[in-house]
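Long-time lurker, first post. I've been practising inverse folding by hand and with some scripts of my own, and I keep getting stuck on stretches where the C-alpha cells seem ambiguous. Below is the full C-alpha cell string for one chain I'm working on. Before anyone asks, I'm not after the true native sequence, just a reasonable design that respects the backbone. If someone could post their per-position residues I'd love to compare against what I wrote down in my notebook.
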C-alpha cells in the first residue's frame, strides 16, 4: 500500500469546532453547565480554548460564513451529525453529572445505562441540539484505554 503522506509531514488531530447560532447561550452552556474554561465574553465571534489537550472552538455561523465566503445549511433541533464525548472516572459520576446537567437545562436524550460492552453512558444535547455523551469505564481517565 502506497503512503501518500510526505516524509516529515504528519497530520495530528488538533481539535474540533461547533458552528453556533446563539453564541451567548452556547458559551453559558459549555462554561457554566459543562465546566469548559471559556474566558471570552458572551458577545464574542469565536471561542478558542484547549480542554484536556484538545482544541475546542465555538464559531459564530455568520462570522464563519463571512470568513469562508460561503453559505451553509444547518439542522434544527436534535441532530445526529456527530457527538462530543466526555469522560468521568466512575459509574456513579455518570449518574450524578447527568442529573446535574439536566437540572441546569441540558436536554435529556438517553438516561444513564450500562451498555452490554461494559461502559456506563448517557446522552444529552446542548441548546442547539448537538449530542454529548457522558460516559465511564469505571476507571480513571488515564487508565480507560489501557
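-- Answer (accepted) --
I ran through it position by position. Result:
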Amino acid at each position: 500500500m502506497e503512503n501518500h503522506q510526505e516524509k516529515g509531514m504528519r497530520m495530528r488531530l488538533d481539535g474540533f469546532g461547533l458552528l453556533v447560532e446563539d453564541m451567548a447561550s452556547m458559551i453559558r452552556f459549555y462554561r457554566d453547565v459543562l465546566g469548559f474554561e471559556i474566558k471570552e465574553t458572551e458577545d464574542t465571534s469565536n471561542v478558542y480554548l484547549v480542554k484536556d489537550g484538545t482544541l475546542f472552538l465555538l464559531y459564530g455561523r455568520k462570522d464563519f460564513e463571512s470568513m469562508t465566503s460561503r453559505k451553509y445549511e444547518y439542522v434544527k433541533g436534535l441532530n445526529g451529525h456527530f457527538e462530543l464525548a466526555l469522560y468521568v472516572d466512575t459509574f456513579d459520576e455518570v449518574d450524578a453529572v447527568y442529573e446535574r446537567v439536566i437540572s441546569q437545562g441540558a436536554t435529556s436524550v438517553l438516561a444513564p445505562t450500562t451498555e452490554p460492552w461494559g461502559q456506563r453512558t448517557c446522552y444529552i444535547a446542548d441548546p442547539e441540539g448537538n449530542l454529548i455523551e457522558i460516559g465511564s469505564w469505571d476507571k480513571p481517565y488515564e487508565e480507560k484505554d489501557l
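A couple of notes from the structure itself: The longest helix spans residues 91-103. Helices lie at 23-33, 61-68, 91-103. Happy to go over any region you disagree with.
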